[in-house]
TrEMBL record, chains A, B:
Primary location: cytoplasm
Lineage: Bacteria, Bacillati, Bacillota, Bacilli, Bacillales
EC number: 6.3.4.-
Protein name in the entry: tRNA(Met) cytidine acetate ligase
Catalysed reactions, as listed in the record: cytidine(34) in elongator tRNA(Met) + acetate + ATP = N(4)-acetylcytidine(34) in elongator tRNA(Met) + AMP + diphosphate
Molecular function per GO: ATP binding; ligase activity, forming carbon-nitrogen bonds; tRNA binding
InterPro entries tied to this protein: Rossmann-like_a/b/a_fold, tRNA(Met)_cyd_acetate_ligase
Positions bound to ATP: 7-20, 101, 160, 185
Length: 411, 411
C-alpha cells in the first residue's frame, strides 16, 4: 500500500485543505493519506478554534485515512522543531512521500534553495547575526538572509514556504527515504483575508466567523458541509470557538501568582522577557491589548504568543528538555482513522517500531504529560460540569472511527 | 491616650461585633480602639466575602478608630501563628490591653488553663501524639488534650476560646506588657446558624445571604445599616459576594498545570497530600464536591482549605519561610482610621519603630509580596476591566479616612 503524509493544523478544515488533499492523491496516487495534525494548541502559540477531536472528524470526513497527533512540545514551536517532529512521525509510519503546499508548486526550487543554503552557511549565519544585532527577531532575520540566496526562487517571506523548506531539511537530517513533493496553493494567499472564489485562508475563515458573531452563513461558501456541521454542533452546545481572549484571565492569574524566578524557568522566557510581561500584565484588560503592549521589533507577536502559551500551560525549560530527550516523537498517538487507515495500520503493525497509542491513559512520557496539561488548559474555559466531562473524554479518547461518525457528516 | 486592641475578620461586620466593640470600650475605657483585621483571605483558608477595603469601612463606620492589616502569611494560619502576628502588631502599636470574646467572659479561666498547660506540657504532648497516631488532626488532638486539663474551665472545643488562649500565649512569648481581657459573647453560639434576637454568627450571616440570593432583607436585622449599605453597593456593582466556589476554576487550573514536585513545594502540602488532591481534581466539578472527596479524619476541612488557598496563591514553603524570617510582622499596613485614630498615630509616631505603610507600592518585603499576590488572586474573579481597576486600586490604596466616607454610612 502506497502511503503519503501531509502535515496539517486544520484550524478549521476548509476548501483549500480539500483541494490540497485531492491534488495530493492525484500527484502521488496514494492508497492511504496520513495526516500529522497539531493537537489543541498550534504553531503560532494559539488555541485551535475546536478541540483536536472535532478537527479529526473534519479530516476524516474529507477523506484523510489516518490522523496522528503532533504533540504539544513539537506543535507549538518554530518551524524547524515543528517540522522535525512531524517528519519523524511520518517516517515512523513508513509513508513513501509527503506533499505540502507552496506558492510555486515546484519542488526543484526548494532543492536549489537548500543547496545554496548549505553552500553559503557561513554567510547566512553572519547576515542573521548582524540582523539580530539590529534588534530583528530570528525568524525575520532568517527570512531576510534566505531572501539574499533565493532570488528568482522560493519566496521565503511566506510561512508555508519556510515550513516546506524545513520539512525537506528534517527528512535529510533524519536520513529518511521520504520523498518530498509540493503542490501549488490555490485561490488565496496566506495573508489574504477576503474570500476569493470558494477558497480562503484559515486565518480569514476564523476572522470572518468571529466578526460575524459565529454565524456559519458567513463562511459556508469556503468550508465543506462536514466542517460546517461540526462547527455548528460545537458552537450550539458550547457557545464559543476557542480563542486566546478566553484564556487571558488564566494567563493573567498565572503571571500574577508566580515569582520572576518561576517565570524565568518557563520555556522561551529568555533575556528577561518575564520582566516585560510582568510590567504590563496588571493593567492589561485583554489579550490583544497585552500583546500590543509587550511586542517589539525583536519579539514578534508569534514569539510572544508562544511564551504566553507556555506560561499558561506552565511548561518549563526543564520539562521541555525532558519531552525532547529522544529528539523525535517516541510514540504514535492515533486520533482517528477510516477503514483504509485501519487496514494500513494492521498491515504495518509489525514494521512500526514506536508504540501505537489508542488513548493517553496507559502510556507515560514527559512529552505526553505536556499534552495532558495542554488538554487540561484547553478545556478549562468551559463551565462545570462540561469542563470535567470534556477533559475526561479527551484523556480517555479512543481513535475516532469514520463509520461511527458517518452520520454527522451526511449532507 | 489609652489604646485597646481587638483582633477581627469582620466577615462581615455584624451586630455581634458591634456589641463586642461597645463592651470593649465599657470594660477598658479606651480612648482608641485599634483593630487588627485579616486582609482578603481568612483564617479558615477562605476568601472574605468583601475586599478588605469594604470591611475596613464597616469597621470605621461602627466606631473602630484604627484598622491595621494582618498579612496573608499570618491571617491564613492555624491559631498560634495567627495570634502571634496579630499580637505583634498590637504590641508595636503600644496598645495597653486587648479584649477578645469568649464563652464565659472570665479571663481567670484562661490563666488557669495556661498554668495547667505549662505544668502538664509533657502529658499534653503525649496525648496529642497518641491521638494523631489514631489519624486525628492536630487541632482536634490539641483540643482533646486540653479538654482533659480544662474540666470546669475554658471550653476548648470552641474556636474562639482556642484563639483567646493563643493570644495570651503570644503576649507571654513576646514578653509584651499587653493586658489580656475578655468579654462574654452574646446572643448566639459560634456554630449557631439560626438567628436569635438581633445577633447572629458571621457564618450564619453569610449562609443566609447565600441561600437567599444575596437578598439583604434576609440579614438586615442582624447587621448595622452601614454593613447593609456597603454590602448592597458591592453586590449591586459586582453581582457577587466572594466565595470559594468562584475560585474553584482557578484552583483546578492551578492543580492541573503543576507537577507533583511543584505542588509538593507549596506551603502545607505535607505527607503527600498533593497526590490526594491530584487524584480527585480532574473529575471534581465544584469546590464543595472536591473538598468532600479529599477530606479525611486526619485532614480537616479547614486544614485542606488552607492548602487549597496556598495552591491558589502559589505560596511555597520557601516563600512562607522568607515571609516569616522576622517571626513577627515587620511593618504596619494601615487600612483605615478616623480622626481619633489619626491623632493616636501622630502622638505615637516617634515611639513606633516599625514602618507605617500607607500603601503597598513603596515598600518591599517577602511578607508584602504574598499580600500583593493575594490581592491579584482575590480580584481575579471579576471580569475585565473591573478586575484590573480593582487590583490597581487595592495595590495603591491609601488608608480609608472616616470623614471621606461618612456619606456612605449615613442612615
Amino acid at each position: 500500500m502506497q502511503a503519503t503524509g501531509i502535515i496539517v493544523e486544520y484550524n478549521p478544515f476548509h476548501n483549500g485543505h480539500l483541494y490540497h488533499l485531492h491534488e495530493t492523491r492525484k500527484l502521488t496516487g496514494a492508497d492511504v493519506v496520513v495526516a500529522v495534525m497539531s493537537g489543541n494548541f498550534l504553531q503560532r502559540g494559539e488555541p485551535a478554534l475546536l478541540p483536536k477531536e472535532e478537527r479529526t472528524k473534519m479530516a476524516l470526513a474529507a477523506g484523510v485515512d489516518l490522523v496522528i497527533e503532533l504533540p504539544y512540545a513539537f506543535a507549538t514551536q518554530q518551524a524547524d522543531v515543528f517540522a522535525n517532529g512531524a517528519i519523524s512521525l511520518l517516517h515512523a509510519l513508513f509513508v513513501q512521500d509527503i506533499c505540502f503546499g507552496s506558492e510555486s508548486g515546484s519542488i526543484e526550487e526548494f532543492h536549489t534553495l537548500l543547496e545554496k543554503k548549505a553552500t553559503h552557511q557561513h554567510t547566512l549565519q553572519q547576515i542573521i547575526k548582524a540582523k539580530m544585532k539590529e534588534g530583528i527577531s530570528y525568524p525575520t532575520a532568517l527570512s531576510f538572509a534566505l531572501e539574499q540566496l533565493s532570488t528568482n526562487g522560493v519566496d521565503v517571506s511566506l510561512p508555508n514556504n519556510i515550513l516546506g523548506m524545513h520539512y525537506i531539511e528534517a527528512i535529510r537530517q533524519q536520513q529518511s527515504s521520504i520523498v518530498p513533493r509540493t503542490i501549488q496553493r490555490h485561490g488565496s494567499n496566506y495573508h489574504d483575508e477576503t474570500f476569493q472564489h470558494n477558497i480562503a485562508s484559515a486565518t480569514s475563515v476564523r476572522k470572518t466567523l468571529l466578526t460575524n458573531d459565529l454565524s456559519l452563513s458567513s463562511i459556508e461558501q469556503v468550508i465543506p458541509t462536514a466542517t460546517a456541521n461540526l462547527l455548528d454542533s460545537y458552537i450550539s452546545s458550547h457557545g464559543i470557538i476557542h480563542h486566546w481572549e478566553h484564556y487571558f484571565s488564566s494567563l493573567k492569574y498565572a503571571l500574577l501568582t508566580r515569582t520572576k524566578e518561576e517565570l524565568a524557568s518557563i520555556y522561551e522566557a529568555e533575556e528577561g522577557l518575564e520582566n516585560r510581561l510582568l510590567a504590563h500584565i496588571t493593567e492589561a484588560s485583554s489579550f490583544t491589548s497585552f500583546m500590543e503592549a509587550i511586542k517589539t521589533k525583536r519579539y514578534t507577536w508569534t514569539r510572544l504568543q508562544r511564551l504566553c502559551l507556555h506560561i499558561l500551560t506552565n511548561t518549563t525549560k526543564k520539562q521541555m528538555a525532558q519531552a525532547h530527550q529522544e529528539k523525535l516523537v517516541p510514540y504514535i498517538r492515533i486520533l482517528g482513522m477510516n477503514q483504509q487507515g485501519q487496514r494500513y495500520l494492521s498491515l504495518m503493525k509489525k514494521k512500526i517500531e514506536l508504540p501505537l497509542l489508542a488513548n493517553t491513559k496507559a502510556f507515560s512520557h514527559p512529552l505526553l504529560e505536556l499534552d495532558k496539561k495542554a488538554s487540561a488548559v484547553y478545556t478549562s474555559i468551559h463551565p462545570e460540569p462540561i469542563r470535567s466531562a470534556m477533559l475526561k473524554r479527551e484523556l480517555t479518547l479512543h481513535p475516532i472511527r469514520y463509520n461511527e461518525i458517518e452520520k454527522a457528516f451526511s449532507h
